[in-house]
# Entry
Amino acid sequence: MTYGSSEDQKPRNHKSRRALERREPKIIENSKQCLFIFGQKTSEAVRQCSKDIYSFKKHEARLLQRRNPILPFDDILPVERLSQKHDASLFCLATHSKKRPNNIILGRMFDHHLLDMVELGIENYKGLNEFKNAKISSGTKPCLVFCGTDFEDVAEYRRLKNLLIDFFRGVEATEIRLHGFEHAFQFTAFEGKILIRSYRILLKKSDTRIPRVELEEIGPSMALQLRRNRFASEDLMKRACKQLKPPQANRVKNKSKDVFGTKLGRVHMKKQDYRKLQTRKMKGLKKTSHGKKLNPKNSSGDDAFTPEPVAIDQ
# Structure
């Protein structure tokens, strides 16, 4: 049994039972929650960067204001405990030291154990407050754009791209209207660094039915330098990405619904013998003594449909 699994916890009341049921594995998982954690020492740049990213993920994130003496590359257990406590699959840890200034660590969990983790250095940071223009509403699903061949050719950048998509994609949506695209994140791999820009998408009038698209930078803006990483093995990644087949509903035979929602059913019966069909007893349908003599096998009087022979005087 793994550490922190819901199998070793027993509910004490109905509220805790519902909470444990929400944390159980599902075929279609809920949107991933993210933890924003501050280390023992932080700089103004990394604190502001964490708060700006948190403002975009406010509906599915939790910001922990307390400073925590956590070093994930040395000991990951404190982060796993926080992940289990808050039921979060993603985390963002902000730290600062002389050896690694303006440091930010992005990671994700599988079964409340570390799956991937990467350490990035922040350079040339510009926050949301430095861009004096209108911003987007929080919780808007962004459009992610990746530029650069490194995201396809280099193995570390491919894993980092997968992690960034998992971190910034927001809630899953099967359908979205054109005016729903209001926010765009651009990640550019250039000269060993990753440039991040955030834009507001403006749809303006044009002479055709297709609107004219303009981008307005709203921040934050930064350059990330790839430092240390701890990516999952191929076997663990394959097990984490495994998807179960959804259960198929039992086929309901001979039942249907019409356009008005009325439930209809079809009943199959064996072939009936109409000679033994009990009808209404009438005096005129009773057999005479002459008919009983001609058909002694069925003289019970139930065969109302058997024609009686009629005597014809010659």
In short: Residues 31-171+178-240 form a domain with the Rossmann fold fold (CATH 3.40.50.10480). Residues 199 and 217 are 4 Å apart (CA to CA). The helical segments are 14-23, 44-56, 77-86, 150-153, 155-168, 234-240, 289-294.
